[in-house]
Fold:
Amino acid sequence: MDIDRLIDDRDTKVIVCCGSGGVGKTTTAAAIAVRAAERGRKTVVLTIDPARRLAQALGLAELGNHPRPVQIEGFDPKGELAAMMLDMRRTFDDMVLAHATKERADEILANPFYQTISANFSGTQEYMAMEKLGQLAHTGQWDLIVVDTPPSRSALDFLDAPQRLSTVLDGRVLKLLAGPARAGGSGLRKIVAGGFGIFAKAVSTIIGGQLLTDASTFVQAFDSIFGGFRERAKKTYELLRSPGTAFLVVATPEPDALREATFFVERLATERMPLAGLVVNRTHPLLTELAQPRAIAAAEHLEELGRAPLAAAVLRLHADRAALAHKEERLLARFAKAHPGIATIGVPALAGDVHDLDGLREIGLRLVGV
Amino acid sequence: MMPTDQPWDAELARARLHVVTGKGGTGKTTVATSLALALATGGKRVLLVEVEGRQGIAQLFDIPPLPYAEEHVAAAAGEGEVRALAVDTEAAMLEYLDMFYNLGFAGRTLRRMGAIEFATTLAPGLRDVILTGKVKETVTRTEARGRHLYDHVVLDAPPTGRIVPFLDVTRALSDLAKVGPVRGHSDGVINLVHSQDTRVHLVTLLEEMPVTETLEAIRDLDAADLRPGAVILNRVRPPRLPARSISSAADGRVDKNRIRDGLSSAGLDLRLEELEGLVEETVEHAVRVDAEARARARLDGTDLPVLELPELTEGVDVAALYELAEALNAQGAGGSRVS
Ligand SMILES: Nc1ncnc2c1ncn2[C@@H]1O[C@H](COP(=O)(O)OP(=O)(O)O)[C@@H](O)[C@H]1O
Ligand SMILES: Nc1ncnc2c1ncn2[C@@H]1O[C@H](COP(=O)(O)OP(=O)(O)O)[C@@H](O)[C@H]1O
Ligand SMILES: [Mg+2]
Ligand SMILES: [Mg+2]
Structure:
């Protein structure tokens, strides 16, 4: 995979960086955005949860919920770079405001149940990331959008969570919970509704009737604008499926991360979403060819003689690194065997973490193999 | 901080409920499982419980997903036994509601419709009340002659960010039931988790973020009157360079000529670029060791016992779990200690 070719291609409109938690999605997204801007693209990067120092370096910390130009000393890209950090609560509020009458919107925003859902529901962040991506694409203001994805444990959540939230907002369950009577109908449904009545009672004993009442009010108020919500989510899904989109699956060379990457790659295939390739982040390639057994033998020799302790230590640390490098190679070879034809690039780990423009540029270089 | 011989002290040995938390991915499941094995050594019966619905234990032992039942997963030296329980939140919730209301078979349908997931989402505290309730039940369960069925229960708990709200059901209850059967049930949990019987162990790597989260968690646990147990440093790698040369090497000051001469006295004559590669690896190693030393220093202030587990380069399989359990035994956890 040639990242420069991908970002130089004017037909590439959206790059999505996904993968399991902590593998380097945010870093990769930011590094690609910086590189794309410096190579002339009019770029915006949507970050979700940048590490604090990275956010500060990009000036993201004090940003609102809209992209702003990135201004850093020494950064004078040929193209442009704007960046934003997702504020999921505000994105949700904006959505409600955009799709409901003022009065209705106020009613929804003030509802405690809405406040719970918009702040806590697992899946809200993913949904709002999709929503924001849809908005950014809709403006037509940028010719490349680089998207980071939320820090969930599983990469699949990015695709699945919106559906989960959608199910809740759809209100079928809620309607039952709040007013089982109305859901009645056929025999079976009556039984269910009956069980539900008890359940609702049990639940309301435990969580309090007020929450259920709020929930019911919310669903009624939300019902009228739900269609619009769903329509937009569908559009964003279509955008993700279109040929202008490129998914980059990020993983570290560890079994768990690669397993998640496998799930995601397979899922993209069934969804017919365009996979550009796998970024294996934080590898530890050998920087010298000296074979591990030779290094160990020489270290032992020196240690026995009690000579040249520095050289012996260097040989030992090289042998450790060789063991790690070999393990990583084995894991990647296994992945490649199971998924032939998936382009892969390795990004060697930086010694420290990545928290400024220079670090991002360095990651950019490593992404293209320099 | 060098670990003393037996950091696992008498206080820790006395606990029966061992809650294992840490930042995600630091090795909670691996450490909890090794700890269960270590505590089972010498003929004890230990229950290992997971509550996050991830089937992490089954994955670790490379067995099919665990049902919602206490199953034998491993034997420990001296006829010890580890059983595992993967708590299914929804099943536990129905079990729980069933104690107070007769749901009948509607329960299954409710479950299929997502109603239970929904209810626990509405009130996240509800889920924690149920899960901790289940854990308490296993800790306090007795056999015919009044002896505890399990000598120890090890809980593969939620990550550091959620551990206090998870354990501190008092807080969760403030917006839940104030009276009635649910309340009574929960009082038992509150007593257990705040007692001498319970310790919360913190797994961390020697990296900035996990250590920060560990320190925050210790502070939060203290504030909530819960008891931090041991800090368990996981995936510790041996420093190869002498301590005094770390900081200069981390700054890129490595004596290339000395290395070259040393190598050639061992019969290795490297080309210049190979030598430079070695130097670069040395600098990267030093930067990491330097960061690890800083991470350790930050943990020094906590005054908690510190245990260490080595990085296993070949990955973690069942044999590796026993290896880690032995390392814990050697530091005083289970096994050698007579109780
Ligand atoms: N190639 C790399 N070398 C060194 N550190 C890295 C590298 N990639 C990411 N990091 C560091 O790893 C941590 C997690 O990266 P991040 O991009 O926030 O992951 P994610 O968004 O997937 O959770 C950050 O501290 C980051 O600086
Ligand atoms: N001591 C160790 N040596 C090598 N790998 C380890 C060690 N401890 C954990 N791991 C690996 O780290 C990854 C995360 O461990 P896990 O126990 O699943 O963490 P958590 O439960 O905190 O998410 C797993 O791939 C596991 O095999
Ligand atoms: Mg991130
Ligand atoms: Mg785990």
About this structure: Chain B has a mean pLDDT of 88. The domain at 10-242+303-330 of chain B is CATH 3.40.50.300 (Rossmann fold). The pocket of magnesium ion (ligand 4) is lined by residues B 28-29, 56 (CB under 6 Å). DSSP finds 15 helices and eight strands in chain B.
